[in-house]
Automatic annotation (TrEMBL), chains A, B:
SUPFAM superfamilies: ACT-like (SSF55021), Glyceraldehyde-3-phosphate dehydrogenase-like, C-terminal domain (SSF55347), NAD(P)-binding Rossmann-fold domains (SSF51735). NADPH binds at residue 103. Transmembrane segments: none annotated. The active site is at 203 (proton donor). GO terms for molecular function: homoserine dehydrogenase activity; NADP binding. CDD domains: ACT_HSDH-Hom. This is Homoserine dehydrogenase. It comes from Lactococcus hircilactis. L-homoserine binds at residue 188. Belongs to the homoserine dehydrogenase family. Pathway: Amino-acid biosynthesis; L-threonine biosynthesis; L-threonine from L-aspartate: step 3/5; Amino-acid biosynthesis; L-methionine biosynthesis via de novo pathway; L-homoserine from L-aspartate: step 3/3. The lineage of its organism: Bacteria, Bacillati, Bacillota, Bacilli, Lactobacillales.
Amino acid sequence: MKKIKIALLGCGTVGGATYKILQMNAEQIAQKTGVILEISKILVRDKERPYAVPESLLTTNYQEILDTRDIEIVVECLGGIEPASSFMLQALKAGKHVVTANKAAVAANYETLVSTSAQYHVMLRFEASVAGGIPVLDALQAPLNSNDIEEVSGIVNGTTNYILTQMIEQGQAYEEALKMAQEKGFAEADPTADVEGIDAANKLSILIALAFGEIVPIEKIATIGISKLSKEDIAFASHLGYKIKLLASAQKSKTSLQASVQPTLVPKDHMLAAVANEFNALFIHGNAVGDLLFYGKGAGGLPTASAVAGDIIEIANAIDKNAAFDSYVNKISASHLTYLGEGSNAYYLRLSVSNRPGVLAAIATTFSQHGISIESVTQEVNGDAAKMMFILNEVAREKLELALLALEKLPEVIKVACILRVMN
Amino acid sequence: MKKIKIALLGCGTVGGATYKILQMNAEQIAQKTGVILEISKILVRDKERPYAVPESLLTTNYQEILDTRDIEIVVECLGGIEPASSFMLQALKAGKHVVTANKAAVAANYETLVSTSAQYHVMLRFEASVAGGIPVLDALQAPLNSNDIEEVSGIVNGTTNYILTQMIEQGQAYEEALKMAQEKGFAEADPTADVEGIDAANKLSILIALAFGEIVPIEKIATIGISKLSKEDIAFASHLGYKIKLLASAQKSKTSLQASVQPTLVPKDHMLAAVANEFNALFIHGNAVGDLLFYGKGAGGLPTASAVAGDIIEIANAIDKNAAFDSYVNKISASHLTYLGEGSNAYYLRLSVSNRPGVLAAIATTFSQHGISIESVTQEVNGDAAKMMFILNEVAREKLELALLALEKLPEVIKVACILRVMN
Ligand SMILES: NC(=O)c1ccc[n+]([C@@H]2O[C@H](COP(=O)([O-])OP(=O)(O)OC[C@H]3O[C@@H](n4cnc5c(N)ncnc54)[C@H](OP(=O)(O)O)[C@@H]3O)[C@@H](O)[C@H]2O)c1
Ligand SMILES: NC(=O)c1ccc[n+]([C@@H]2O[C@H](COP(=O)([O-])OP(=O)(O)OC[C@H]3O[C@@H](n4cnc5c(N)ncnc54)[C@H](OP(=O)(O)O)[C@@H]3O)[C@@H](O)[C@H]2O)c1
C-alpha cells in the first residue's frame, strides 16, 4: 500500500485533532482508500510545551519541512493571515500539496493561493475553512457543477449562533450570553472577529468564489455583527414569527451580486431557524437541483479536523492515481458584475415615536411617498411614548435609507431604533 | 477545450432532464470545469415518439452506442433491473464510464458493477440513485472518509414522505393521500415499490455499501411500508410529540449492523421531522464529524438530473486530467458481521383492551417479566373497550415479539393493533 507523508503546521485545536483522527481511524482510512497516511513532522513554536503527539515529530524550523522531499502534503493549522499565507505559498512552490482550515488566509489571498497551486500543478484544498465539518465546499464543486448556483446563505459562525440561541431561548442580554459562551469555550477571550461578523464575511467571500466564480474581498461585503442586538428586538421578532440569526448571504443574477453578513429575521418554520447553538447550516439554491441544506458542526477540534483529514485523503487519492493535479477549485472568470450590494430585502424596523393621534398616518405617508409598502405593524404604548415595529415589503436598501432620513425629520418620530433584514 | 461525448440510455423524466441541463447550463459547465460535454446519441424504444431533443441523436440500437469509440460516457436512465444492468456491464466492458440513477439495478448488482468497473479501469457513478439531487454519496466518499461512519438514517423516498405529510397535516387517510399524490404526479399508477418501502430499501442497501463497506441485499433488510398506517396512529403519535416518517436506517458497531426500513416515530423537534412533502433528508453520524444532515429534493426530473450531470462532470474532469481511473466507491472489505437485524429500539405500541380494572397492571406485569420498561402510557376509553398507547424503552425486537405473544394471551388484551419503531 502506498504511504504518503504529511507535515502539520501547528498543533493546537485543529492540528492536534487532525493528528488524532489519522491515528484513531487509520485502519478504516487505509481500508477504504488504499493509502496509508503518515504525519512525519509537526511545526510548533516551542518544543518544550506538552503536546499529545510523539516528541520526535516536533520541529520549530519550517525550512526543514520544505526541504524534506518525501513530505508531499503540508497541512496548515496555524491561523492568522501571516505567516500562514507565506508558508502555504512556499509549500506550493516547493511542489507540495496544501490543506488549510484558515478562512482568514484563504479569503485574504484567494487568487494568489489558487493561481500558485495551478502554476505548480499541486492541489490546494480548504474544506474546513467554511462551516467546519460540513462538506459543503466539496459539494459546491463537481456534484453541483451542473447547476447555475443562484444563492448561498447560511449560518457559518458557531460562536454567534450559540450566543443568539441563548438570547432567544433564555431571554439573555447580549453581554450575558457572550460571557456564557466564553465560559463554555464557544467564544474566544477576544470575540471581535466572531461577534462583528468578520469571520462569517471571510467564509462568505470563499463561498462566493466557489459558487459564483467571483472574487469579492471582505471589505466589499456589507457586514454587521450581533453586538448591538437588543433582547427587545429578539423578543419582538419572535412575537412576529421570526428568529434572528446571523446570516451570511449571497444571491447572484446575471450581472449583479447581493452579499451581506447581518442579523436577519428568519421565519420560524424555515429550516435555518432550527439550527441552534454551535451548529452551522448552509442553504444553497441551484437552477437544476432547487433548494439544498447542509447541516452540521461548524467548529470544534474533531469536526473541523474531519474536513482537514477529508482533504488530505482526496489529495492522497489523487497522488495514488497519478492524477494530473489541478487545483480542485472552479476556474475564476473575468467578472461581469455591475452591481454589488445588499440588494432588495424585506426589513424589520423599530421606531420610537410620541404617542399621539396621527403618528401612524404620518409614518405610513412617508413610506408611501418613498414607494415602500408595509407588510405589518404592531405597537407597544408606554405613556407618552410608543414603540412601533414594522415589517416592510421588499425594498432596495438605498431606497430604505432615504425613507429613514425623511422619517427622522417627522416631529412624531423620536428615533429609528433598529433596522434588520428579513429573509426573503 | 476538450470535448467529451456522451450517450444517454432513455429519454424519459431523468434522461430528458439530463439533456436539458447540459444544454441550459452548457456555458457555466464549460467555464467552471474547462470541458465541453456533448450528448451525441440517445437510446429510445421508438424513434417516432415526440422527444424534446434533436431527432438526429435518437437511436434504437444499443450496439451502435457500444460501437461508437469516441463515446466515452454512457448514462443509463432506463430504470428497472434489466436490461439496464446488462447494458451497463456491456458499456463498462467496452471501456466506457457509466453514470446511472437506477437504484434497483445498482442495489441488485452492486458487486458485479463495481468490480467490473475496477477490472476495466473505468468509472461507475450513481449519485442520483439515492436521495436524487442531494450530493450525499459523494460526501460519503472522500470528504467523510476520515470518519468511521456509525449511522446513516433518513427519508429517502419522496412519494411516501408526500403521502405521510398529507396524512399528518390534513388528517387524511392513507388511500385519500395516495390518490392525491398520484394526481399531483408524486406517486406512480402502481405505487407498490414506493409505498411498500422497496425503493427505500434499495437506497439503504447502496448507503450501507458506501458508508460501511458491507454488501447487504435488500432481502436481508427488514422492510415495512406505509400502506397499513392508520390515521389514528398518526394522530396518537402527534399527541405524544412525534411525527411518523418512513425511515431507512442503518447503525453499525464493530461486528453488528442494524438496518431497517419502517415507519418510525420521529420527535417533532428533530430536524428530520421538519422534512415535508417530496423532500428527502439524510442524517449521518461520523466518529469525528459528529452529526450531519443533508436536505433537498429526492426526486423530479431536474433535481435528479442535477446529480446525474454532476457525475458526468466528475468523470469528464478525470478524463481531462488523465487520472488513472478507479471506481469512485470505497473498497468493500470481507464482512465481519455477526449480527444483522433491526437491533434495539424504543417502540410505540397500540393495544385494544377490555376496559376493566386491573388491565394496566396485567400488561405492565407482562412487560416487566420480559424485562421491558414502559416510558409512557396513555389511554382512550370507549365504553367496554379501550385503546392503550405505550412508548416502550429500548428493547431488542426479538424480545419485544416474545412479550407481544404473552400479551395476546392475556384475557384483557383484545389485540395488538399497531407496533412502530421510535427513533433513538
Ligand atoms: N477551532 C475551530 O473550531 C476551528 C474551526 C474551523 C477553522 N479553524 C481554523 O483553524 C486554524 C487553527 O485554529 P485552532 O483553533 O487550531 O487554533 P489554535 O488552537 O490556537 O492552534 C494554533 C497553533 O498554531 C501555533 N502557531 C501559530 N503560529 C505559529 C508559528 N508561526 N509557528 C509555529 N506555531 C505557530 C499556535 O501556537 P501559539 O499558541 O504559540 O501561538 C497554536 O498552537 C485557524 O485558521 C482557524 O480559523 C478553527
Ligand atoms: N423520476 C425520478 O424522480 C427519479 C429520481 C431518482 C432516480 N430515478 C431513476 O431514474 C431512472 C429513470 O427514471 P425516469 O423517471 O426517468 O423513468 P421514465 O420517465 O419512465 O423514463 C425511462 C425511459 O426509458 C425508456 N426505456 C426503458 N427501457 C428501454 C429500453 N430497453 N430501450 C429503450 N428505451 C427504454 C422508457 O421508454 P418506455 O416508456 O417505452 O418504457 C422511458 O422513456 C430509474 O432508474 C429511476 O429509478 C428517477
